[in-house]
Fold this sequence. Notes:
Layout: E1 31-32, E2 35-36, H1 40-54, H2 61-84, E3 85-88, E4 92-98, E5 101-102, E6 110-113, E7 119-125, E8 129-133, E9 144-146, E10 152-163, H3 166-171, H4 176-192, H5 197-203, H6 205-223, E11 227-238, H7 244-313, H8 315-331, H9 355-360
Helix pairs in contact: 4-6, 7-8
Amino acid sequence: MPWSxxxxxxxxxxSGSGGxxxxxxxxxxxxxxxxxxxxxxxxxxxGQDRLRRAMPxxxxxxxxxxxxxxxxxxxxxxxxxxxxxxxxxxxxVGVEMLFGKPKAELSEPGLHFLMWxxxxxxxxxxxxxxxxxGSNQRGDSSGLMLSGDQNIVDVQFAVLYQVxxxxxxLFDVEDPVSMLQQVSESAxxxxxxxxxxxxxxxxxxxxxxxxxxxxxxxxxxxxxxGIRINAISIEDAAPPSQVADAFDEVQRxxxxxxxxxxxxxxxxxxxxxxxxxxAAQVREDAAAYKSRVTQEATGExxxxxxxxxxxxxxxxxxxxxxxxxxxxxVLKDSSKVILDRDAAGxxxxxxxxxxxxxxxxxxxxxxxxxxNKGTNN
Length: 377
Protein backbone atom coordinates (compact mmCIF):
# COMPACT_ATOMS: atom_id res chain seq x y z
CA MET A 1 0.00 0.00 0.00
CA PRO A 2 1.28 3.57 -0.61
CA TRP A 3 2.37 5.44 2.39
CA SER A 4 2.55 2.28 4.48
CA UNK A 5 4.63 2.63 7.61
CA UNK A 6 7.35 -0.03 7.72
CA UNK A 7 8.69 1.18 11.09
CA UNK A 8 5.32 0.99 12.85
CA UNK A 9 5.15 4.72 13.55
CA UNK A 10 2.28 6.16 11.60
CA UNK A 11 2.04 6.77 7.91
CA UNK A 12 5.26 8.75 7.46
CA UNK A 13 8.78 7.33 7.28
CA UNK A 14 11.15 8.16 10.11
CA SER A 15 9.91 9.95 13.16
CA GLY A 16 6.45 11.23 13.65
CA SER A 17 7.55 14.72 12.73
CA GLY A 18 9.18 13.85 9.40
CA GLY A 19 7.64 13.95 5.94
CA UNK A 20 7.34 11.10 3.48
CA UNK A 21 10.94 11.62 2.35
CA UNK A 22 12.39 12.04 5.88
CA UNK A 23 11.80 15.71 6.36
CA UNK A 24 9.08 17.75 8.01
CA UNK A 25 6.62 19.43 5.74
CA UNK A 26 7.35 23.09 5.34
CA UNK A 27 4.98 25.98 5.62
CA UNK A 28 2.65 27.29 8.26
CA UNK A 29 -0.05 25.06 9.74
CA UNK A 30 -3.54 26.29 10.30
CA UNK A 31 -4.33 26.91 13.90
CA UNK A 32 -7.54 27.04 15.85
CA UNK A 33 -9.29 25.48 18.76
CA UNK A 34 -6.28 25.85 21.05
CA UNK A 35 -3.93 23.58 19.03
CA UNK A 36 -2.65 22.49 15.61
CA UNK A 37 -5.28 20.90 13.30
CA UNK A 38 -4.33 17.60 11.59
CA UNK A 39 -3.32 17.94 7.98
CA UNK A 40 -4.60 15.82 5.05
CA UNK A 41 -1.89 13.20 5.48
CA UNK A 42 -2.89 12.60 9.11
CA UNK A 43 -6.54 12.17 8.18
CA UNK A 44 -5.69 9.65 5.47
CA UNK A 45 -3.35 7.80 7.80
CA UNK A 46 -5.93 7.42 10.55
CA GLY A 47 -8.59 6.24 8.12
CA GLN A 48 -6.17 3.70 6.69
CA ASP A 49 -5.34 2.36 10.12
CA ARG A 50 -9.01 1.95 11.04
CA LEU A 51 -9.74 0.07 7.82
CA ARG A 52 -6.73 -2.21 8.41
CA ARG A 53 -7.89 -3.06 11.92
CA ALA A 54 -11.41 -3.80 10.68
CA MET A 55 -10.18 -6.28 8.09
CA PRO A 56 -9.65 -9.93 9.10
CA UNK A 57 -6.00 -10.75 9.94
CA UNK A 58 -5.18 -7.53 11.72
CA UNK A 59 -3.44 -5.74 8.84
CA UNK A 60 -0.81 -7.98 7.25
CA UNK A 61 -0.33 -7.73 3.48
CA UNK A 62 -1.74 -11.13 2.47
CA UNK A 63 -4.43 -11.10 5.13
CA UNK A 64 -5.57 -7.65 4.02
CA UNK A 65 -6.03 -8.79 0.42
CA UNK A 66 -7.98 -11.89 1.53
CA UNK A 67 -10.21 -9.74 3.69
CA UNK A 68 -11.00 -7.49 0.77
CA UNK A 69 -11.91 -10.50 -1.35
CA UNK A 70 -14.23 -11.87 1.34
CA UNK A 71 -15.88 -8.50 1.72
CA UNK A 72 -16.48 -8.22 -1.99
CA UNK A 73 -17.87 -11.74 -2.08
CA UNK A 74 -20.23 -11.02 0.83
CA UNK A 75 -21.52 -7.89 -0.89
CA UNK A 76 -21.97 -9.84 -4.13
CA UNK A 77 -23.92 -12.59 -2.36
CA UNK A 78 -26.19 -10.07 -0.66
CA UNK A 79 -26.79 -8.30 -3.97
CA UNK A 80 -27.48 -11.61 -5.73
CA UNK A 81 -29.99 -12.66 -3.08
CA UNK A 82 -31.65 -9.26 -3.28
CA UNK A 83 -32.03 -9.63 -7.06
CA UNK A 84 -32.98 -13.32 -7.00
CA UNK A 85 -35.81 -13.18 -4.45
CA UNK A 86 -38.96 -11.29 -5.46
CA UNK A 87 -42.55 -10.99 -4.30
CA UNK A 88 -45.70 -10.99 -6.42
CA UNK A 89 -48.58 -8.99 -4.93
CA UNK A 90 -52.12 -10.43 -4.72
CA UNK A 91 -53.35 -8.29 -7.62
CA UNK A 92 -50.41 -9.15 -9.89
CA VAL A 93 -48.82 -12.01 -11.80
CA GLY A 94 -45.14 -12.40 -12.59
CA VAL A 95 -43.57 -13.25 -15.95
CA GLU A 96 -40.11 -14.78 -15.56
CA MET A 97 -37.63 -14.51 -18.42
CA LEU A 98 -34.62 -16.69 -19.11
CA PHE A 99 -32.04 -14.73 -21.15
CA GLY A 100 -34.87 -12.34 -22.10
CA LYS A 101 -37.27 -15.04 -23.32
CA PRO A 102 -40.50 -15.37 -21.27
CA LYS A 103 -41.25 -18.69 -19.66
CA ALA A 104 -44.49 -20.55 -20.27
CA GLU A 105 -45.70 -20.55 -16.67
CA LEU A 106 -46.72 -17.44 -14.73
CA SER A 107 -45.77 -16.63 -11.17
CA GLU A 108 -48.72 -16.53 -8.80
CA PRO A 109 -48.91 -14.11 -5.86
CA GLY A 110 -46.34 -14.89 -3.18
CA LEU A 111 -42.56 -15.18 -2.66
CA HIS A 112 -40.47 -16.57 -5.54
CA PHE A 113 -36.82 -17.25 -6.41
CA LEU A 114 -34.93 -16.99 -9.70
CA MET A 115 -31.33 -17.25 -10.91
CA TRP A 116 -30.33 -13.67 -11.42
CA UNK A 117 -28.85 -12.31 -13.72
CA UNK A 118 -29.73 -15.11 -16.12
CA UNK A 119 -33.38 -14.86 -15.13
CA UNK A 120 -35.41 -11.71 -14.62
CA UNK A 121 -39.07 -11.01 -13.84
CA UNK A 122 -41.69 -8.42 -14.67
CA UNK A 123 -44.98 -8.11 -12.79
CA UNK A 124 -48.29 -7.17 -14.41
CA UNK A 125 -51.47 -6.05 -12.58
CA UNK A 126 -54.43 -8.27 -13.46
CA UNK A 127 -57.25 -6.48 -11.62
CA UNK A 128 -59.78 -4.34 -13.46
CA UNK A 129 -58.53 -0.83 -14.18
CA UNK A 130 -60.20 2.29 -15.50
CA UNK A 131 -59.14 5.16 -17.70
CA UNK A 132 -61.27 8.24 -18.39
CA UNK A 133 -61.11 10.03 -21.72
CA GLY A 134 -62.51 13.43 -22.64
CA SER A 135 -63.45 16.24 -20.31
CA ASN A 136 -66.25 18.77 -19.94
CA GLN A 137 -64.04 21.35 -18.28
CA ARG A 138 -63.87 24.76 -19.88
CA GLY A 139 -60.92 25.11 -22.20
CA ASP A 140 -60.34 21.35 -22.59
CA SER A 141 -61.24 20.26 -26.12
CA SER A 142 -60.03 16.65 -25.93
CA GLY A 143 -63.58 15.32 -25.87
CA LEU A 144 -65.05 17.41 -28.71
CA MET A 145 -66.45 15.22 -31.50
CA LEU A 146 -68.49 15.77 -34.65
CA SER A 147 -71.78 13.86 -34.80
CA GLY A 148 -73.44 12.42 -37.88
CA ASP A 149 -75.83 15.38 -38.20
CA GLN A 150 -72.96 17.91 -38.18
CA ASN A 151 -73.24 18.89 -34.52
CA ILE A 152 -70.35 19.21 -32.08
CA VAL A 153 -70.66 17.27 -28.84
CA ASP A 154 -68.30 17.00 -25.87
CA VAL A 155 -68.13 13.35 -24.76
CA GLN A 156 -66.56 12.03 -21.57
CA PHE A 157 -66.38 8.24 -21.26
CA ALA A 158 -64.63 5.62 -19.16
CA VAL A 159 -62.97 2.40 -20.29
CA LEU A 160 -62.87 -0.57 -17.90
CA TYR A 161 -60.18 -3.05 -18.94
CA GLN A 162 -58.22 -5.99 -17.60
CA VAL A 163 -54.99 -7.73 -18.64
CA UNK A 164 -55.86 -11.24 -19.80
CA UNK A 165 -52.52 -12.17 -21.43
CA UNK A 166 -49.54 -10.77 -19.47
CA UNK A 167 -46.97 -11.96 -22.03
CA UNK A 168 -48.63 -10.16 -24.93
CA UNK A 169 -49.17 -7.15 -22.69
CA LEU A 170 -45.43 -6.93 -21.90
CA PHE A 171 -43.77 -7.89 -25.16
CA ASP A 172 -46.09 -7.40 -28.16
CA VAL A 173 -46.92 -3.71 -27.71
CA GLU A 174 -44.54 -1.04 -26.47
CA ASP A 175 -47.12 0.94 -24.46
CA PRO A 176 -50.43 -0.98 -24.20
CA VAL A 177 -52.23 1.56 -22.01
CA SER A 178 -51.41 4.44 -24.35
CA MET A 179 -52.51 2.31 -27.27
CA LEU A 180 -55.78 1.53 -25.47
CA GLN A 181 -56.44 5.25 -24.99
CA GLN A 182 -55.80 6.06 -28.63
CA VAL A 183 -57.83 3.15 -29.99
CA SER A 184 -60.85 3.75 -27.72
CA GLU A 185 -60.89 7.48 -28.49
CA SER A 186 -60.65 6.79 -32.21
CA ALA A 187 -63.48 4.24 -31.99
CA UNK A 188 -65.68 6.69 -30.08
CA UNK A 189 -65.11 9.38 -32.68
CA UNK A 190 -65.95 6.92 -35.44
CA UNK A 191 -69.22 5.78 -33.84
CA UNK A 192 -70.32 9.29 -32.85
CA UNK A 193 -69.58 10.46 -36.38
CA UNK A 194 -72.18 7.98 -37.70
CA UNK A 195 -74.92 8.79 -35.18
CA UNK A 196 -77.21 11.81 -34.71
CA UNK A 197 -76.46 13.95 -31.72
CA UNK A 198 -79.66 12.89 -29.93
CA UNK A 199 -78.39 9.30 -29.77
CA UNK A 200 -75.32 10.54 -27.90
CA UNK A 201 -77.28 12.78 -25.57
CA UNK A 202 -80.00 10.38 -24.44
CA UNK A 203 -81.55 8.07 -27.05
CA UNK A 204 -78.96 5.32 -27.55
CA UNK A 205 -75.98 5.73 -25.22
CA UNK A 206 -75.87 2.03 -24.41
CA UNK A 207 -75.81 1.07 -28.08
CA UNK A 208 -72.98 3.52 -28.79
CA UNK A 209 -70.94 2.25 -25.82
CA UNK A 210 -71.34 -1.38 -26.91
CA UNK A 211 -70.34 -0.59 -30.49
CA UNK A 212 -67.26 1.30 -29.29
CA UNK A 213 -66.32 -1.60 -27.02
CA UNK A 214 -66.52 -4.08 -29.89
CA UNK A 215 -64.41 -1.95 -32.24
CA UNK A 216 -61.80 -1.31 -29.55
CA UNK A 217 -61.59 -4.99 -28.58
CA UNK A 218 -61.24 -6.12 -32.20
CA UNK A 219 -58.44 -3.62 -32.80
CA UNK A 220 -56.54 -4.63 -29.66
CA UNK A 221 -56.90 -8.29 -30.59
CA UNK A 222 -55.42 -7.63 -34.01
CA UNK A 223 -52.34 -6.17 -32.30
CA UNK A 224 -52.31 -8.92 -29.64
CA UNK A 225 -52.17 -6.34 -26.88
CA GLY A 226 -53.30 -8.81 -24.20
CA ILE A 227 -56.09 -6.51 -22.94
CA ARG A 228 -59.76 -7.38 -22.46
CA ILE A 229 -62.32 -4.55 -22.52
CA ASN A 230 -64.95 -5.23 -19.86
CA ALA A 231 -67.15 -2.21 -20.46
CA ILE A 232 -67.28 1.29 -21.88
CA SER A 233 -69.52 3.82 -20.17
CA ILE A 234 -70.47 7.25 -21.50
CA GLU A 235 -70.36 9.31 -18.32
CA ASP A 236 -71.35 12.66 -19.79
CA ALA A 237 -72.29 14.14 -23.15
CA ALA A 238 -72.92 17.84 -23.52
CA PRO A 239 -72.74 20.53 -26.17
CA PRO A 240 -69.75 22.90 -26.20
CA SER A 241 -69.94 25.68 -23.66
CA GLN A 242 -70.23 28.32 -26.40
CA VAL A 243 -73.57 26.95 -27.61
CA ALA A 244 -74.82 25.29 -24.43
CA ASP A 245 -77.71 27.77 -23.99
CA ALA A 246 -78.99 27.17 -27.52
CA PHE A 247 -78.84 23.43 -27.03
CA ASP A 248 -80.74 23.75 -23.76
CA GLU A 249 -83.48 25.65 -25.56
CA VAL A 250 -83.68 22.95 -28.19
CA GLN A 251 -83.86 20.28 -25.49
CA ARG A 252 -86.68 22.09 -23.71
CA UNK A 253 -88.57 22.49 -27.00
CA UNK A 254 -88.19 18.78 -27.72
CA UNK A 255 -89.37 17.92 -24.23
CA UNK A 256 -92.43 20.16 -24.72
CA UNK A 257 -93.07 18.45 -28.04
CA UNK A 258 -92.93 15.05 -26.41
CA UNK A 259 -95.26 16.23 -23.66
CA UNK A 260 -97.79 17.58 -26.17
CA UNK A 261 -97.67 14.36 -28.15
CA UNK A 262 -98.26 12.34 -24.98
CA UNK A 263 -101.19 14.53 -24.00
CA UNK A 264 -102.67 14.21 -27.49
CA UNK A 265 -102.29 10.46 -27.40
CA UNK A 266 -103.95 10.34 -24.00
CA UNK A 267 -106.89 12.43 -25.23
CA UNK A 268 -107.17 10.28 -28.37
CA UNK A 269 -107.21 7.09 -26.32
CA UNK A 270 -109.89 8.52 -24.05
CA UNK A 271 -112.08 9.56 -26.97
CA UNK A 272 -111.58 6.25 -28.77
CA UNK A 273 -112.44 4.34 -25.60
CA UNK A 274 -115.55 6.42 -25.02
CA UNK A 275 -116.67 6.05 -28.65
CA UNK A 276 -116.10 2.31 -28.55
CA UNK A 277 -118.12 2.09 -25.34
CA UNK A 278 -121.00 4.06 -26.85
CA ALA A 279 -120.88 1.95 -30.00
CA ALA A 280 -120.98 -1.23 -27.93
CA GLN A 281 -123.95 0.16 -25.99
CA VAL A 282 -125.79 1.05 -29.22
CA ARG A 283 -125.15 -2.43 -30.59
CA GLU A 284 -126.46 -3.99 -27.37
CA ASP A 285 -129.57 -1.79 -27.42
CA ALA A 286 -130.18 -2.64 -31.07
CA ALA A 287 -129.78 -6.32 -30.37
CA ALA A 288 -132.19 -6.06 -27.42
CA TYR A 289 -134.73 -4.09 -29.50
CA LYS A 290 -134.44 -6.63 -32.30
CA SER A 291 -135.00 -9.48 -29.91
CA ARG A 292 -137.95 -7.74 -28.24
CA VAL A 293 -139.65 -6.81 -31.53
CA THR A 294 -139.07 -10.27 -32.93
CA GLN A 295 -140.53 -11.90 -29.86
CA GLU A 296 -143.52 -9.53 -29.85
CA ALA A 297 -144.16 -10.19 -33.51
CA THR A 298 -143.88 -13.90 -32.95
CA GLY A 299 -146.31 -13.70 -30.02
CA GLU A 300 -148.81 -11.61 -32.01
CA UNK A 301 -148.61 -14.06 -34.87
CA UNK A 302 -149.20 -16.96 -32.52
CA UNK A 303 -152.11 -15.11 -30.88
CA UNK A 304 -153.64 -14.31 -34.26
CA UNK A 305 -153.31 -17.93 -35.27
CA UNK A 306 -155.03 -19.10 -32.09
CA UNK A 307 -157.83 -16.48 -32.50
CA UNK A 308 -158.28 -17.51 -36.11
CA UNK A 309 -158.72 -21.11 -35.05
CA UNK A 310 -161.36 -20.11 -32.48
CA UNK A 311 -163.10 -17.82 -34.99
CA UNK A 312 -163.39 -20.64 -37.45
CA UNK A 313 -165.06 -22.77 -34.76
CA UNK A 314 -167.51 -20.08 -33.51
CA UNK A 315 -167.58 -16.95 -35.66
CA UNK A 316 -170.37 -15.04 -33.82
CA UNK A 317 -168.94 -15.52 -30.35
CA UNK A 318 -165.44 -14.71 -31.45
CA UNK A 319 -166.57 -11.58 -33.33
CA UNK A 320 -168.45 -10.28 -30.28
CA UNK A 321 -165.48 -10.99 -28.03
CA UNK A 322 -163.14 -9.11 -30.33
CA UNK A 323 -165.52 -6.17 -30.42
CA UNK A 324 -165.81 -6.00 -26.65
CA UNK A 325 -162.05 -6.28 -26.09
CA UNK A 326 -161.44 -3.57 -28.65
CA UNK A 327 -163.96 -1.22 -27.09
CA UNK A 328 -162.53 -1.90 -23.63
CA UNK A 329 -159.07 -1.01 -24.88
CA VAL A 330 -160.32 2.18 -26.54
CA LEU A 331 -162.60 3.41 -23.72
CA LYS A 332 -160.58 2.38 -20.67
CA ASP A 333 -159.27 5.92 -20.09
CA SER A 334 -162.51 7.69 -21.01
CA SER A 335 -164.58 9.61 -18.44
CA LYS A 336 -167.91 8.72 -20.07
CA VAL A 337 -170.35 6.17 -18.59
CA ILE A 338 -172.47 4.18 -21.01
CA LEU A 339 -175.60 2.42 -19.68
CA ASP A 340 -177.80 -0.12 -21.29
CA ARG A 341 -181.28 1.34 -21.32
CA ASP A 342 -182.97 -2.02 -21.45
CA ALA A 343 -180.92 -3.23 -18.48
CA ALA A 344 -182.26 -0.22 -16.44
CA GLY A 345 -185.88 -1.25 -17.04
CA UNK A 346 -186.52 1.45 -19.52
CA UNK A 347 -186.84 4.04 -16.78
CA UNK A 348 -183.63 6.03 -17.40
CA UNK A 349 -180.74 6.46 -15.03
CA UNK A 350 -180.84 4.73 -11.74
CA UNK A 351 -181.21 7.55 -9.17
CA UNK A 352 -178.79 6.02 -6.71
CA UNK A 353 -175.87 5.59 -9.16
CA UNK A 354 -172.99 7.90 -7.97
CA UNK A 355 -172.11 9.38 -11.33
CA UNK A 356 -170.35 12.42 -9.83
CA UNK A 357 -167.96 10.28 -7.80
CA UNK A 358 -167.21 8.20 -10.83
CA UNK A 359 -166.30 11.33 -12.75
CA UNK A 360 -164.02 12.65 -9.97
CA UNK A 361 -162.23 9.32 -9.57
CA UNK A 362 -161.72 8.88 -13.30
CA UNK A 363 -158.01 10.05 -13.34
CA UNK A 364 -157.10 7.60 -10.56
CA UNK A 365 -158.94 4.58 -11.82
CA UNK A 366 -156.97 1.59 -13.00
CA UNK A 367 -158.06 -0.68 -15.77
CA UNK A 368 -160.79 1.47 -17.39
CA UNK A 369 -164.19 3.00 -16.41
CA UNK A 370 -166.78 1.04 -14.35
CA UNK A 371 -170.14 0.52 -15.99
CA ASN A 372 -171.95 -1.54 -18.40
CA LYS A 373 -170.57 -2.29 -21.81
CA GLY A 374 -172.03 -1.00 -24.99
CA THR A 375 -175.25 -2.22 -26.42
CA ASN A 376 -175.52 -4.92 -29.00
CA ASN A 377 -175.35 -3.96 -32.61
